[in-house]
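agent: user wants the full assembly modeled, not chains individually. Plan: 1) parse entity lines 2) check alphabet per entity 3) run joint structure prediction 4) return tokens. Steps 1-2 passed, two entities, 508 residues total. Proceeding.
--- entities ---
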Amino acid sequence: MRNKYSVFSLIKNALSYHENWHRAWKDPAPKKEYDAVIVGGGGHGLATAYYLAKKHNMNNIAIVEKGWIGGGNTGRNTTIIRSNYLWDASAGLYDHALKIWEGLSQELNYNVMFSQRGVMNLAHNLQDVRDLKRRTHANRLNGIDAVYLSTEEVKKFCPIINTSPDIRYPVLGGTLQRRAGTARHDAVAWGYARGADAMGVDIIQNCEVKGIKRNGDSVEGIETTKGFIKTKKVGVVAAGHSSVIANMAGLRLPLESKPLQALVSEPVKPIIDTVVMSNAVHAYVSQSDKGELVIGAGTDDYVSYTQKGSHQIVEGTLNAILELYPIFSRMRMLRQWGGIVDICPDASPILSKTSIKGLYFNCGWGTGGFKATPGSGDLFAHTIANDEPHKLNAAFNLNRFVSGDLVDEHGAAAVAH
Amino acid sequence: MFLINCPYCGERDQQEFKAGGEAHIERPKQPTELSDDEWAEYLFMRKNIKGVQFERWNHAHGCRKWFNMIRDTSNDEIKAIYKMGEKPPSQ
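--- prediction returned ---
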């Protein structure tokens, strides 16, 4: 890498008042033709380009992004990383990502602040208890670390949780994945962008795709706001706007795009050193390194691209947070926002070829795509480079909605869709 | 969050309603003769339009009746509301 970040480069640049750092990535104009173009410069798209260049020697490629990189859902999620999914296919997919997370900062030479602080999922009724115990066993059979905790053990692991049996939805137990945690979402986008750029990938921002040009059943290129770009391979990683791109190619997807909200509080001293999620009362919370409580709410039930969401969704989440954590009753919330999530009928993603040759889709991550960023990029790059899925993403094809071989992860999605 | 003019009850807060997804998807008349592709199309594939979309809504915490809505999903603006069985009004 041209400018390796290290303690020595930090000292050197400190001597010149940090005014001489090189740009982390260039700002090129699009070339006339690329071997492949990735549509969407979020974490998944940047990671896809990074692995295409790194593992498949495809260096003549570009990422086109209609806004700025990491400005969509990558910058809007609650940064939770875990792999405790129920089914074998999902366990393989998400744990592949988690394994890459564990060495990502070193690999990218960029601190993504990956923090394995553990993720706890709470049970609030007997069905939750049975489901979470089953999921713990399934995880362990797949080699994923998981333990089931009693109410007392939940209290011991996170003392601020109200485990009184008298609350409306008492805590009956929970699961813990210790390898799970959080990472700094912007750093993930920037780290992958810097890495991809260093290998010759063109990152083209403020460049919106307006059409996909086909010659019969093959892709010929894309129309963008910066002109026509010729390419035989287009990988679409457009999250909430996947259906919009699919419509340009005359393709139908089983997706619905809905607003998902999150909010952060004012910063306070360290109070919660893990991530706690609760599907039943629909609330999850962690604390950022700045000290803000990061709280996730649910999706609205209607299709919308507004990045806003309804007030009552936030209110419901905060009601649950207050019952579980009475200590937060005087916290003030600073910011609230929404992101548009593309939800599949089975709450599992699509990483797939399509009926159009050279057109690939990576979408349908719904409310939980951030955790999969490195694995998603790696496997999607494999799919694009070889025109065949990797065995870890073979189950996540578009054809499963025809064959009926769905990967139903509504339970493990942790947020009810 | 927005207001919805229920054709039976009048204007109410959106949180009284439940969204029922894309409208005018007709149940197959002869289900036994459908291919897997046609089932997938009927059950799962959606237009998911950014812009003007036809939807079904239910006044779940009110009269519990279903009705249709034409709404712009890019700004949540409601263009028209009409009862089940009625033809969509021209916009």
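agent: reporting back. The longest helix of chain B spans residues 36-43. Chain B has one helix and six strands.
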